[in-house]
Specification:
The protein is of the alpha+beta class. It has a domain of 69 residues: Nuclear Transport Factor 2, Chain: A (Roll), CATH 3.10.450. The protein is built from two helices and four strands. The longest helix has 135 residues.
């Protein structure tokens, strides 16, 4: 009987030990599972973290690339703008240079024309002075001429009627004194300061810048006498 009870006790003990062993094994399995699950979760978390980090880096890289692209675009636009401005500046400078050259050429041309005109005027003046000098040799002084004679008789009355006898004799005396002959332009013949004195103002045909001034005096029975010849500007 005693032996039977002991066997039952040993059996219960074995059952208890086996249960405890099962419990320990279960606990071990649970712990191992937690460890494995935790590692798996950690790995998944790490993977997600790594993936998130990679995506963030990729976005940052894309943002950086976009920023660089925009910066390059802005730089290219600025370079293009600068090139256009430089081109415009060069065109303006070239236009100013052309205008300046044109103005200088116009000024030179005007100066050449002015110098030419001044030279012509100088030559014309010299020619007139030469002509005047030659004519002055013909000018007579007071009392240097003789009366030209007359067809008039009786008391003399000076006449200023054109083509009258007295008028024609005055013209003849002037022609002889100046040497102009019939090639003479008569500006006027007028009283010379007395009843028997006259003055004639004449020029060569085609000349209107100067004239001879011829003073005449009547000599009874002998006609008109030239007392002086001078030249004046008109």
């Amino acid at each position: 009987m005693r032996s039977r009870v002991q066997r039952q006790k040993r059996k219960k003990m074995h059952i208890t030990l086996n249960g405890l062993i099962c419990v320990v094994l279960v606990l071990i399995f649970i712990a191992a599972g937690k460890i494995m699950w935790g590692d798996s979760n950690q790995a998944s978390t790490d993977n997600r973290h790594n993936l998130t980090k990679s995506e963030s880096e990729q976005r940052n890289q894309q943002n950086n690339d976009t920023t660089i692209s925009k910066d390059k675009e802005i730089e290219l636009k600025n370079q293009d703008k600068k090139l256009r401005e430089n081109k415009k500046t060069k065109e303006q400078q070239e236009a100013k240079r052309i205008q300046k050259d044109s103005e200088e050429q116009a000024t030179k041309k005007q100066k050449v024309e002015k110098d030419r005109e001044e030279q012509k005027a100088k030559e014309a003046k010299e020619e007139r002075e030469k002509h005047n000098s030659q004519d002055e040799e013909k000018v007579t002084g007071p009392g240097s001429s003789k009366p030209i004679g007359t067809s008039q008789t009786g008391p003399h009355t000076s006449s200023y009627v054109k083509d009258s006898v007295d008028w024609n004799e005055k013209v003849k005396a002037i022609q002889m004194a100046t040497g102009l002959g019939v090639n003479m332009n008569i500006w006027r013949i007028e009283n010379g300061g007395g009843p028997q004195k006259s003055v004639g103002k004449v020029s060569p045909d085609g000349e209107d810048s100067w004239m001879y001034v011829v003073n005449l005096e009547w000599v009874d029975q002998k006609g008109w006498k030239v007392t002086s010849v001078s030249k004046q500007n008109r």
